[in-house]
Amino acid sequence: MAYNYSYGTATNSANLLSLLNTFVVTTCGWTLHDDQSGGSPAYYVWTSAGESGKEAIYIRCTYGTTDGLVLTAYRYWDNAAHVGYQASPAYAVTTYGIWSDHDASFNYFLFGDLDRIAVVTKTVGSVYYFASFGIVTSVWSRNIAVSANSETAGSSVVIEVDITTPFTVNQYYGIVNGNNATGDYERIQVTAINPGVSITATIAGNHPAGAIIGEDPQPNYINRYSSTTSVYLIGPTGTAAQTHSLFVSGSFTPVIVTDPDARQNYTWLFPLMAYQSVAQEYRGNLKEIYATGGSNLSSEDTVTVGSDVYKCFNSSSYGWIAIKEQTV
Question: Are 322 and 311 in contact (CB under 8 A)?
Fold first, then answer.
């Protein structure tokens, strides 16, 4: 679907939370999975199947104890019990995803589609803050399958799937219970393929119908405005030490000043790469969000690349970034 954007002024944090909910759900087509807007604290949980229709993205957004909205990513959120599973690390109400002001107005810029949402807010002092959530454009294939039936742990289990094209015999894949409370992940090796019908693999756990299978299932992420490089991205990367659904703390490498800008008066866009900071394992990049140089730009300028239009900001901590606004 098309990229969407919405700009305006929020009267306070509560207003931004309401506006963001409308943008995410009504404009971009995510599902309001759990509406606790009348709770204390108030929060929303949004879910999306992504542009592919097969993802399982769960994001919770609520208030911080002081100025700011808190983002948390999950493998699954139970909207009956109002509890999430496999959450991103240490995202308490004192750590914020989105800058806001509980008591005063500020400008906001929202961008998104079914894969990701980006938020920029601006203070009275003309400082821009950037945050986003959704799925990364993974280094691994996003071609994923969905299981048709519940499966029990065992050897050489035949798993009926909607497509078999993502798989190669003897290669390894992740399987995630994206539609139940455990959200368990495990790494499996496909030992046989019945084209268009099923794959065969040994599985260690039980998996319900609707489990997601692929090279990098559920690469959900959040990043926060107040940190220079932190992005919290659902693991694993496929290593033996990460055979369960661990969240890994990764990093961006923003390009603050780009030499090509200065030399030829060009504006260059560079992918914001996400990687595991400890093992330096490259995971992918943020979809349609780029680092750029600022020698040719002022905040809120647009840059057109082919038929795509990008909005540019000199953001606090992240430096100059360009976010896809629309395709014309």
Answer: yes
Q: Residue type for 188, please? A: I
Whether the ω angle into residue 236 lies within 30 degrees of 0, i.e. cis, is yes
DSSP structure string for 168-233: -TT-EEEEE-TTSSS--EEEEEEEEEETTTEEEEEESS-B-TT-EEESS---EEEE-TT-SSEEEE
Instruction: Report CA torsion sign: 17, 19, 20, 22.
Output: positive
Cα distances from 63 to residues 14, 16, 122, 209, 268, in angstroms, run 8, 10, 18, 35, 36
**Is the whole-model pTM more than 0.85?**
yes
Helix locations, the chain, DSSP H: 13-22, 259-264
Residue-wise pLDDT for 206-256, tens only, equals 888 999 999 988 888 888 787 655 677 766 543 332 322 334 555 544 444
Strand duo 281-292 + 106-112: pairing: unpaired
Helix, strand, coil percentages in the chain from 3-state DSSP, rounded to 5: 5, 50, 45
CB–CB of 237/252 below 8 Å?
Answer: no
Amino acid at 140: W
In angstroms, the Cα distances linking 24 to 44, 59, 285 are 11, 11, 21
